[in-house]
Amino acid sequence: MIEGFAVDLGGTKTAAARIVDGRVEDRVQTPTDRNASFDGQMESIAMLLRQLGYHGNGRLGVAVAGRVDSDGCWQAVNPNTLTGIDGKPLRGWMQERYGGIITVRNDAAAATLAEARLGAGIGADHFAYLTVSTGIGGGISLNGRLLESRNGLAGHVGFVSSPYAVRRCGSGRIGTVESVASGHAIALAGEVRTAREAFEADTPQAKAAINRSAAAIARLCADLTSLFGLDRIAIGGSIGLAEGYLPQVEHHLRKEPQLFQVNLTPAMLGHDSVLLGALMTAD
């Protein structure tokens, strides 16, 4: 049974929820200040939890954009997303402030857990979740167990190389999936302000940017399948679930040899996946 309070701190918004019997009962959120210091981000979380009536010593799960290592320290892989967190001890701060049972992990890893056990991954032994949004994130679940690493980098699939990319990514690498397939990349190549505008625009530049993003995600799906022998991949995120995007990914995936044409499906749990997964155990 999944019960307690959960936090989802992403690059765009920070949400908190009270979860009862595996369902989100109450939910509050606020825009994320990407330039806030670690203390500023913690105060934002504390404000939301106060609104929900949480004051400590209960079950609390915290999922955040960026890398969380096995010691519970938090830092960005792409500093352009969150500029001020600087490797601070997230789990330690939460434990000192609230006590009780505290879980901290990457947001895409949390969503992977929830989708694998409660959503699109049910029945798949080797499953991956990809979020295509402001950035590109994901996670791998093998035989029901989340793939994790001591340095917290496992699952950051947006930072692998792509043949469709040439720009330097915020991670410092050149030619990554995130640098060509993310919302920021779509807006830049589509010559609009946001990815949403690109989907609404009927221009060759916007259409080409979205198509290139879908091609890069399809190639990533084939690559992950070759590495992990995946049965299924769920696609989520604001772009991944945008109308018409997944069919474009499937179109490009059909160009791959049959062995690498993994089953694709839309993520099922929406905004609740990160919050639910934040409270789950990894095995």
Automatic annotation (TrEMBL):
Organism from which the protein derives: Nitratireductor pacificus pht-3B
Gene Ontology biological process terms from the UniProt entry: N-acetylneuraminate catabolic process
* Known EC number: 2.7.1.60
- Protein name (database record): N-acetylmannosamine kinase
Keyword Transcription among UniProt keywords: no
> Which UniProt key words apply to this protein?
Kinase, Transferase
Q: Which domain of life is it from?
A: Bacteria
Molecular functions (GO terms): N-acylmannosamine kinase activity
